[in-house]
Write a structure and sequence with these properties.
Aminopeptidase, Alpha-Beta Plaits, 2 domains, 9-stranded antiparallel β-sheet, 6-stranded mixed β-sheet, 21 strands
């Protein structure tokens, strides 16, 4: 079935038409140029003002409706890029292939890959506002940022003074009925170590060990759920294996995105006798499954013969395995100011080690900027014990809540009037661009909301179709009520 056919009959038609376009044009982080050029040409063809800033962000301006020219300007904001995650058996190429969504029980889902509803639905909502000539609103600036998922590069590069709006609606959250007023900031720790390889000792058999079947997920939103991290679990399995039998390490790889919980990891080891390795791994897997019961029930740990090759020197093998085993992962501290919300955490997102050394990435998040830096320093200190280079980079500030926000009051009033019941106000343990933009534009009143999205940053990501329609109605109503 063609991508466009999936969206036939879905409402609102304008929103789904634009999301269909976003599914058709690849948009990995730092690979958004083709999509940006397409959207710029589309907007120019409709007579809208278009600009691309030096960071690669796209800004499209739509004049106010008649008689509303003097109203406060509103910035609508979402990011163009998506997290590119797929199952290991998928041949999908995120640089070339379209996303192929499916309809399933009221949800739009991608089977075997991420869907890109994060943040494609937000971008599609903005494009629909730009296209719909029947809406009532003041001046609108649509800010489509780039490189959000790989380091917030677009928001970082956004120049002060470029935007004129006094209010901003960020459309990058994932629970319908909730308005977000704050988010975590964070930074990365990149670990790198090199060495000279050694030849495979004679008489050793090479085996490939695979840890699969974890749910994965968003490294901020899902971090408190205690889902398994394939990188940490496979290192633990190797440590347990090494306590019973000696082996040499050829390779260790896991995770493909810094901001996703690693779902799969793989190791190549050489040992004298592999006959009982399957039974050993089965026992380790059984223990892990008991620990993860009810959270990650699909874990498997298997092995198969593999080709011979050079190995890591034994001291290097010990440094990597011991350091990664000792390295923190998960929730560090819960917030004392915002009950029920994670304050500080980190994710061991990617590991790639071979016979000549390797690298690992930790993504640290916190509602408290100093706490993020402190946890990153702990990781740097751990690796310093083995003289391993660990570099902090990419710091971005958190978004501090403003409970007295007039824009929030307006949003809540419209929600109560049009949908009944009370909306919820939340702070999210994820990195939104709001904190960076607010730092560049002091006094900007910002609220974030969006439809219900589940499984973001993992294959099987899905968005609720009815929630997208409600989100559209809410956005249109808020724009009409701004005075």
């Amino acid at each position: 079935m063609a991508v466009a056919d999936v969206f036939a009959g879905l409402a609102p038609a304008l929103v789904w038409s634009h999301f269909s376009t976003l599914c058709s044009i690849p948009r990995p982080s730092r690979g958004e140029a083709a999509l940006r050029e397409h959207l710029a040409a589309w907007a120019a063809g409709r007579g809208l003002a278009v600009a691309v800033d030096p960071a690669g962000n796209l800004i499209i301006r739509k004049p106010a409706s008649a008689g509303r020219e003097a109203l406060p300007g509103v910035i609508l904001q979402a990011h163009l890029d998506m997290v590119c995650q797929k199952n290991a058996d998928s041949a999908h190429d995120f640089t070339r292939d379209p996303i192929r969504p499916q309809l399933r029980d009221g949800w739009l889902v991608a089977d075997g890959t991420t869907l890109g509803a994060d943040n494609g639905i937000g971008a599609a909502l903005m494009l629909a506002v730009l296209e719909d000539t029947t809406l009532c609103h003041g001046p609108v600036e649509a800010l489509f940022t780039v490189d959000e998922e790989a380091g917030m590069g677009g928001a970082r590069g956004l120049a002060p003074g470029l935007l004129q709006g006094r209010l901003m609606l960020n459309l990058d959250t994932e629970d319908w009925g909730e308005f977000y007023l704050g988010c975590a900031g964070g930074l990365d720790v990149d670990v790198r170590r090199t060495c000279a390889p050694e030849p495979l000792p004679a008489g050793l058999q090479v085996q490939r060990i695979e840890l699969r079947g974890l749910r994965g997920g968003h490294s901020g939103v899902n971090i408190h759920e205690e889902r398994g991290n394939a990188n940490k679990l496979l290192v633990r399995a190797l440590q347990e294996l090494g306590a019973d039998c000696s082996f040499r390490l050829l390779a260790l790889q896991g995770g493909t995105a810094r901001n996703a919980l690693a779902r799969e990891a793989f190791a190549m080891i050489a040992l004298a006798d592999a006959a009982d390795l399957p039974a050993r791994l089965q026992r380790i897997a059984a223990d892990l499954c008991r620990e993860l019961q009810g959270v990650d029930d699909g874990l498997t740990l298997t092995c198969s013969p593999a080709e011979a090759g050079p190995v890591l020197p034994l001291p290097e093998q010990q440094i990597w395995l011991n350091s990664l085993h000792a390295a923190p992962h998960g929730v560090k501290r819960m917030s004392q100011q915002v009950p029920g919300v994670v304050e500080t955490s980190n994710n061991l997102g990617m590991v790639d080690i071979g016979p000549t050394g390797g690298s690992a990435n930790f993504m640290v998040r916190s509602l408290v900027d100093r706490a993020a830096v402190a946890l990153a320093d702990e990781i740097v200190s751990l690796f310093a014990l083995s003289a391993t280079a660990a570099v902090k980079s990419g710091f971005y500030p958190g978004w501090m809540p403003n409970p007295s926000s007039p824009l929030l009051a307006l949003c809540q009033s419209v929600f109560s009037r049009d949908f009944g019941g009370e909306s919820q106000v939340k702070v999210v343990h994820a990195g939104l661009e709001c904190g960076i933009i607010a730092e560049k534009y002091p006094g900007l009143d910002i609220v974030s909301f969006g439809p219900s999205i589940r499984g973001a940053h993992a294959p099987g990501e899905r968005v609720e179709i009815a929630a997208v329609e409600r989100c559209w109605r809410l956005l249109v109503a808020i724009l009409a009520e701004i005075r």
